[in-house]
Amino acid sequence: MIKLGIFGSGKVGGSLGAWAAAKGDSVAFTAKHEASAERAARAAGHRARALPLAELARECDLLLLTAPFAEIIPSLAPFSADLRGKILVDVSNPITPDHRALTMGFSTSGAEEIARRFPESQVVKAFNATFAEIYAARRTEIHGQKITVLAAGDHEPAKTQIIDLIRRLGFEPIDAGPLANARYLEPLSLLNIQLGRVLGLGTDIAFTLLRKT
Amino acid sequence: MIKLGIFGSGKVGGSLGAWAAAKGDSVAFTAKHEASAERAARAAGHRARALPLAELARECDLLLLTAPFAEIIPSLAPFSADLRGKILVDVSNPITPDHRALTMGFSTSGAEEIARRFPESQVVKAFNATFAEIYAARRTEIHGQKITVLAAGDHEPAKTQIIDLIRRLGFEPIDAGPLANARYLEPLSLLNIQLGRVLGLGTDIAFTLLRKT
Question: What is the ipTM of this complex?
């Protein structure tokens, strides 16, 4: 029995599959183009092979779905009987071709609603994704790692002022682009709340952006 | 001219306002209950005072909106003329009273659509918010700080298997709760893409969750 099936043999699927194979898993790749599945399998070494999707769906217990989101449901639909009880790991994201927006589930944000109502003001989204407890403790780092605070907005001078404020408080400011990116900053806050308050990690947590340079 | 107006004097507004005052800013607080604005102002020291919203809107150049989202637009609406040209920093999040979901803009996620179509399979959302380049380089940390990979799903044994895989690859796994939390993991990926590919930070970046303990 093959352990790990990779549907989609691009950079994400190819890399994760080869890595898992290097860790000892047996891995099978499938892709829209057979040649790319075979290339991924060769790159992943002797514990990996290429298989048609029908066989992958039948033989693997665990499928990593790394193909573009739009291909996943139509491609897997004919094999739903084989997928019963199997684990499907959705690695995809439903994004537009320019990779700038989600294609479903998202239509606006609180910050954009405020900007729509006050069009002559300069709305910046910031400070919304870190726990109040961090602010109350004036904690700007955890284990020596700076906490990043993100700012999104359409008015550059206004955003620059907020970025200065973030820096003066001691955080690492990150320019998160236009105000529409509040659609990503607001969910980041919800994720933080889920982890800290719902799933029990507590409020001494914070997301930060690690950067190599 | 007062520099910083804080609308909402709860833990977020009170903490950020006091902190900015300690850094030398003059700060004014307003709140639904005058007493709480006065309490916040006292706690913030001599550079801070409490003001009615009308005066705050008139006198401050920069307003931090830390009140609950639902109160912001109705409260500020009468003062929109005074807010022209001002900076409004939206620190709020449009969330449900139990803090578990966003109240607008979000209705589903790719992972939930897959689960709906394959109800007898066990869908886990994972690996979707880190750049392929990180996987390709088998990089599990940046500057000595482990990268976290989040997994959300409704089937605990399936999620446990994925968490084991994340750990075996060398990342720090985080259980991100039910599959509906893919609504927060998918935007996290978009934020990552915005920062790395659109705003120019490159692909040697990764979000990680810092934890005190």
Answer: 0.77
